[in-house]
Amino acid sequence: LADWRIETSQTQRINMFARVGELSYPDQELRDASTVSLGGGLTQNATGRFSAVYFTSAFIGADEADGSSVDARRAAERNFAGLQAGVQLSITSGIRVVNRISLVTSRYDEATALTSGDRKRDDDLVLLSSKLVWLINESFSVIGTLRYSNNQSNIDALEYDGFSGDVRVRYDLN
User: Fold this and answer.
1) Which burial class, exposed, middle or buried, applies to 36 when counting CB atoms under 10 A from its CB (0-12, 13-18, 19+)?
2) Angle made by CA atoms 96, 125, 18, in degrees to the nearest 5
3) N or C terminus: fewer CB in 10 A for the chain?
């Protein structure tokens, strides 16, 4: 919703942001929520062979259930915080590689229905991604992404890890 950027030098930028949004799950309305987050980051352009661009950011936020039932609050209401860091390398004038690591911790506000008692859900998510961008010409590009996700939770049924990937073709209107 709001972004603020300041160029501190020709090679460095600081950014701050505030975002408000709506999370909608068509087949799981119980999880629908309003979300708000605040954060900031630093981008540093380096000189050299690969014209590296280093970036890092941190954020905090909260989700509030759209529904007022206890089940909706259990499913959707949480506080979260995260860190992200990465690098973009220009291998050639038409090929870029972007590697990123993201860490997100989530603490849910209500006791979960998945366990007995008043145990609240706590998750720690690690995301690793590598993206290859091939700029075919001024308008067309092909983008391949490989991701690894690992979610550690205090509730065994919510732990997972795995790989995903995709290939996209992009056309930019110039």
Assistant:
1) middle
2) 70
3) C
Burial of 4 (0-12, 13-18, 19+ CB in 10 A): exposed
pTM (two decimals): 0.84
Percent over 70 (pLDDT), the chain: 99
**Cα 66 from Cα 87, distance rounded (Å):** 37
Neighbours of 83 (CB within 10 A): 15
Residues 137 and 170: beta-carbon distance below 8 Å: no
Contact 31, 75 (CB under 8 A): yes
Instruction: Measure Cα distances from 52 to 17, 27, 55, 69, 92 in Å.
Output: 24, 42, 10, 49, 12
* 7-33 per-position pLDDT tens digit: 999 999 999 999 999 999 999 888 899
Compute the distance between CA of residue 152 and CA of residue 130 in angstroms, rounded to an integer: 21
- Could you read off the pLDDT of 28-79 as tens digits, one per residue? 888 899 999 999 999 999 988 899 999 999 999 999 999 888 888 888 899 9
Beta bridge partners of 79: 62, 107
In 69-118, the DSSP E strands lie at 78-92, 95-111
